[in-house]
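Annotated sample (chain length 594).
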Amino acid sequence: MTTKVLERDHQCSELKMDPIKFEVMRSAFVAAADEMGVALRKAAYSTNIKTRADFSCALFDAKLRLIAQSFSQPVHLASMSRMIPRAIRQYGVENLESGDALVTNHPFRGGVHLNDVAIIAPFYSGEGQLEGYAATIAHHVDIGGYAPGGYCISTEIYQEGIIIPPAKLVSRGKIVQDVFNVILENIRSPRQSAGDFRAQIAASLLGQRRMAEIINKFGAPTVEQFVDELIEYTERWARSEIMALAEGDQYFAECHLDDDGTTDQPIRLVLRATIKGGRVSFDLTGSDEQRNSPMNATLSQTYSALAYVIKCLIDPDVPTNEGFYRLIDVTAAEGTVVNARPPVGVVGGWEVTMRLCDLGFRAFSDAMPTKVMASTKSINCHMACGGRDPRTGEYYAFIETMAGGYGGRPTKDGMDAVQAHFQNTENSAVEETENNYPFMITRYELIPDSEGPGRYRGGLGVRREWKFCNHEATLTVFSDNRKFAPWGLFGGGSGAPSRYILNPDGEARDLPSKVTLRLPPNSVISYRTPGGGGYGPTLERDPQLVLSDVINGKVSPGRAHDVYGVVVDLEKGLVNEETSCRLREQMKKQAELG
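Output written by the structure step:
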C-alpha cells in the first residue's frame, strides 16, 4: 500500500460519519461541479471559454463554505473562495430568493480583474430553506474599456471596462433585462458576450439541480454534517502534508517584471515564507508600491497564486476548500502591486501573480530541490484585439494567451509549448480561430534554441503570427519577460526572453511587452514566447539527449557545441564523444577561471 493511500486512510479513520458515505458524497459534489464546467463550456459562444476553458465552477454551502470546484483554472481556486462569499455578504442574503442569480466582477470587493465575471445562484429547498450556492466565474472576451479585450495600458481601473458590484441579473428565474442591457451596451461584442453570460447562468442552474439531488438523497442534516467533516478532514490532511515539508523561516526570493506599461521602471517583487507547525505564512513586504498602471494585483489574486504554490508541493489529492486555505496566511501591505487599492488598474494582475508562482518555487528550491522546477515562461502572454469583421460587418473582440516553455525539472526536461501552469487554459485551435475571426495564422511553431540549458533543459517557446485580413484592428500586446528572461536553477541557464514584432517580414518593428496599437489592414503581429529555465549544470547534460534535440530541430548544432559542449555529426546522426569530452573539459576550466 502506498504512502499516499495510508495517509488518506489515516485521515478517514478520524471521521465521525461513515467513511464510505463520506467518499460517495464528496465524489457527488465534485462530479456536480465538473458537470457544471462541461455545460458551461458546451453552451458558451466565445473561443476563450468554449475552447480555451477559461472558467471555473464551484458549489458552496449555506454558510458560504466552498464544497467542491471543477477542474479547470487553478488561479480561481482561492479567488472564488474569497470573491463569492464577499459578494453575497455585501448584497445581503435577505435580499435573495429562489430563482435569483447575482452578477459581479468588482476587483476591489474580493474579485480579481474586470474580465473575470461571476454568476452566483442561491439554492433553496422546497420549504424555502437556503441550502447553498452554485457559482461560475468566466473570463469574458471583452468587458468594455479603452481597448478591445479589456487589456489596455490604463492608469486607473475606470479605463479597463464596466465595473459591476453585486447585482441581481436573474430574478425569480428570469433575466433582469435592464441590468443585462446596461452590461451589454458597454461591451464591443454583445452577441458573443450575451451567449457567454447565458451559458454561465445555465451552468449555475445545473449546479442547483445536482445539489438538490444530493440533498434529497442524503438529507440536509447529513449534508451539513458532511461539509463540517470535509473541512476538518481537509485541514488534517493538508496540515500533515505541510508538516512533511522542510520547516524554516529563511525562505526568500525576489525578482523583477519588465515595467508597468506606463513607465520603463521595472516592478520589484519580494517574497519571504515561513513553514511552521503545519502552516505556511507568506510575507511580501518590500514589493513595490502600486503603480498608476494596469500592473497591479488584488489581494485575492496574490493569495490565489501563493496558495497554488503550496498545493503543488503537497499531495495533489488533498481537497481544495476552507480546510486547506485556513493554513495559508498572506501578508501584503495595502497600496502595493500585490495588494492594490482603488482606483489603480488591475487588468495585469494575473501577470504579476504568475511571476509570484515561479518566485515561490524559487524561494523553496534550496530546501526542496526535488519538488520544484526552474522558471517557466512565467507570463500569461495576452494578445487582445478587436475590429469590424469585413465578412459580416459585425464588430468582434478576441483574446488569447500564448504557450511557452516550462522549466527543467529534477529528472526531466521542461515541456515545450504549454500554457502557464496556474492558468491551465488550452491553446486556441488555428482552424476555429480562422473560421470565426478575420485572421490568418501565418506561423505557429516551436522556437529552436529558446530553451534554458541545463542537465535538464527548459521547454521551448512558441512563435505565433496573426495577419489581420482586409480590415483595420486595434491590438494590445499585454505580456512580460522581454527584459528579464526565465531563470534556471542549480546551475541551469536562463530561457530565451519574449519578443513582440510588428510586420516581421517587413519593417520588423520590435514592440514593448505592453502596448496598444492601431493596425492598418493586412498587418502581421508576431509573438515569440520565452523558453523555460534549465535545471542543473549544463555540461552534465547527457550528450545523447543533446543529439536528440539537434536531430529534432530543437537545438542547433552550433548551440550544442557552444553551450552544451557536444559535437554532433549530423550526417551520421552521432555524437563525436572524444571531441566532445575534450571540449567539455576546456569549457569547465574556462568557467573555473571566470
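Annotation: The CA atoms of residues 41 and 50 lie 4 Å apart.
Annotation: DSSP finds 14 helices and 22 strands in the chain.
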